[in-house]
Amino acid sequence: MLDFSWTEEQNAFRQILRDFAKSDLLPHYTKWDREQKFPYEIWSKMGGLGLTGLRVQEKYNGSSANCVTTGIAALEVGKGDFNAAYAVMLNGLISEILEEHASEEIKEEWLKRMALGECLLGIAITEPGAGSDAANLQTKAVKDGNSYLLTGEKSGISLAKFAHGFVVFAKTNPEERARGVSAFIVPSDVEGIEIQSYADMGNIPIGRGSVFLNEVRIPESYLIGEENKGFYQVMKGFDLSRILIALQCIGAAEQSIDETIGHVRTREAFGSPLAKFQGVQFPIVEHHTWLEMAKWLCFRALWLRDQGLPHTKEASMCKWMGPYLAREAIHECLLLNGHYGYTKEMAIEQRLRDVIGLEIGDGTAQTQKIVIAREIIGKEFKPY
Question: Rounded to whole angstroms, what are the CA distances from 18 to 80, 228, 258, 336?
Fold first, then answer.
């Protein structure tokens, strides 16, 4: 039996988020971009709503939400403020890694505060020569007594400028690829760490940048899980974050379509509202249809994850298709709003810039298609 309905609790939660997005997020969405500031107060409010700890157990200040509920949050928050939805997506990824693999010490010190929205954690995997090829890391972690010394460069790191700490992936066995990677908690204020911010096209409030590690000493208690198991820990988490990214992008696109429908209903040309012209109606209908299709693929993938069923292929389908369809829809909305849509007086141009960033983050479309091909054609036909 198929059932596409939300539970009573999920419907109530969705309505709370819609009200919050409309009152607290949407009016300030462009403000943080223009001022190039991180909205700490908004992150704190989201912590109060439980959005920063959805995938965290209650004993660590979370709400133990399932993946479908977390997806609802990514979608609805994305409608109000695309960048605020990182609190759902990024925290969802990091939460699962720490919940499943970190020591009690790390959970007490870092996870509890992250779940309340009091502590920002970034995830540091990507390097200048290791983006999609995440197993080819050059950052090294060398055991030194009761500590590890970390040296290397991480690039393209979300929250680099604002995070209180990072989940850093480094080689503890340089002779191996994926089998030699470990994960560590690294505070952002520790000696030997340097942050360089980027002047990005979009996602400005997220403060993306590079993290340089110069023999950064951290206690061995900050090792997450087992040594040399870090790559497999994060790859499992990516199956969640990739779906949440798609929903985050779809939310931004749906909001753009809603705003554009309002515009074409009232704007007139040749004596009639624009909404009466099929050349306006049909693009809106087409994008609405594609986004609806992608949205339900995302929720099916989250349902599979909640059931403990395989969903890597589905997650990659969501990741390459969701941001792509969202970008196309937002672009169409910009055009339908005419020259005003091209100005910074409206949020549409910013959504376009922001969504493009997540066509790259957590794996490009090309990477996702390789994953899907591996699943449906066979591992023996991998290009690497």
Answer: 8, 42, 14, 25
Q: State the pLDDT at residue 176.
A: 81
The verdict on 306 and 326 lying in the same domain is yes
What CATH number does the domain containing 282 carry? 1.20.140.10
Q: Is there a domain that residue 28 lies in? A: yes
Reply yes or no on whether the pLDDT at 235 is more than 80: no
Residue 77 scores a pLDDT above 90: yes
- Taking only the tens place, the pLDDT of each residue in 18-47 is 999 999 999 999 999 999 888 899 999 999
Q: Write out the two tokens for 289.
A: 């249809």
- Name residue, tokens 């995302």: 298
HSE-CB for 9 with a 13 A CA cutoff:
6
Q: Among 119, 146, 168, give the residue marking a domain's end.
A: 119
- Radius of gyration of the chain from Cα atoms? 21
Domain limits for position 246: 231-381
Q: What is the pLDDT of residues 112-138, one digit of tens each?
A: 999 999 999 999 999 998 776 767 889
